[in-house]
Structures are given as structure tokens and as C-alpha cells.
Amino acid sequence: MRLLIVEDEKRLALSLAKGLTAEGYAVDVVHDGLEGLHRAGEGTYDLVVLDIMLPGLNGYRVCAALRAAGHDVPILMLTAKDGEYDEAEGLDTGADDYLTKPFSYVVLVARVKALLRRRGSAGSASPLHTVGPYEVDTAARRVTRAGHGEIALTAKEFSVLEQLVLRAGEVVSKGDILEHVWDFAYEGDPNIVEVYVSALRRKLDASLIRTVRGAGYRLEAPR
Question: Which pLDDT tens digit goes with each residue over 26-81?
Fold first, then answer.
């Protein structure tokens, strides 16, 4: 899943980005309200972490503009202010949750996961996907195999598998996986995708992920 952090405190923004990336999310960061509105308005994010006190355009106005334009992306507001009026104003503009600085990183991650689960359960798609003997729960981020229990995957391994599961039977390009599992700023070796696919093949049925030469990968139920 792709997250956008709109926060002008650069040290905090980068710290949050690093932590959320370690949780398996692809994270982009901007430090200005206008840029945040532009990015969030593209509709490519699953959740926005939005500070209120921003240069260019404050968080209230960014949130209100996104809602007025019909964007329903979950928004978690951050602020150094404290008080019922501020919280009410943030929620009135369309924010889904509110967190006052200083906050615990553990609490922020819990709020992010709760908002993403809530959005997933509100949609028509089930978070449970069956692939052969495997059940993939994209909400709980767990993979189990009948009779064998849970299979331990790292956050990145699960994110790569999730992209293939959500498009089961289709060819998913290496570029698509990079874009959704890492982020736009990733400048490392694109062959990192092959490393994670190989790890998944070792932990799951080796025939589960087919390589389509020159095109990408396709998830197939083992026979």
C-alpha cells in the first residue's frame, strides 16, 4: 500500500517514512500543503498522514479541498496544537482520525493500520484470498497454509506477494511491483524484485509464481 506524508518538520517526516517503510508500505514525503494537495489529488495513495501547520496551504484546507473534489482517501491529521476545538475542526473538514504531537510511533502505526483495515472492510473486496492451499489475509497481512499454520514473511515479502495476489492470473511487471512496494524515489537495483520473488518461492510453493519472460510475474494456483 502507498502512503503520503505531508509534514514540514523534515526530521519527523523522514523518521515516520523510514518506520512505515519498514512496516512494508511504500511511502512518499512532501513538506508543503500545496504539493501535498497536488500529490494526494492524483488518487494513487491508500492513506495520507497530514500535518495541520503547513506552509503554502494548511492541513485543514488541504483536507477540505480533497473531500470537496470527491477523494475518499483516509486522512490521519497531525498537529502540535491540543484542544477539542482543533480536533473538531479537523474532523469537520473530513479527516478520519487525529493525533496530537508528541505522539508514540507505535500509536501512529496502530492508527494507520486501523484506518486501512476500516477502508478495506468498507469496500466490496474481501481481504481474504485463497490461492491453492494458501489463504492470504491482506488486512491482517498473514499467510497461512491448510494444516501447516502461518508462514512467516517479512513486511516486504508480504507486500510483493500482495501485489501478485490482488492481480492473480494477470502478468504484473517488475515496474508495477517496484512502484507499489517501494516508492517513486527508489533508485536502487530494480533486480531487488527478483530477490524477493525468489524468497517467496522458497517459503511457498515454488510453482506459485511464474516468470513471464520479458513481461513480469504471474500468480498461479499450484495444482
Answer: 899 999 999 999 999 987 889 999 998 899 999 999 999 998 888 888 999 988 76
* pTM strictly above 0.85: no
For 77, counting Cβ atoms within 10 Å of its Cβ (0-12 exposed, 13-18 middle, 19+ buried), the class is: buried
Residue 106 contacts by C-beta under 8 Å, 6 or more apart in sequence? none
Grid coordinates of 75: 486522512
Separation between Cα atoms, residue 218 and residue 212, nearest integer Å: 7
Q: Which helix (H) or strand (E) holds 207?
A: none
Strand (E) positions, the chain? Answer: 2-6, 26-30, 47-51, 75-79, 97-100, 128-131, 134-137, 142-145, 149-151, 171-172, 209-212, 216-219
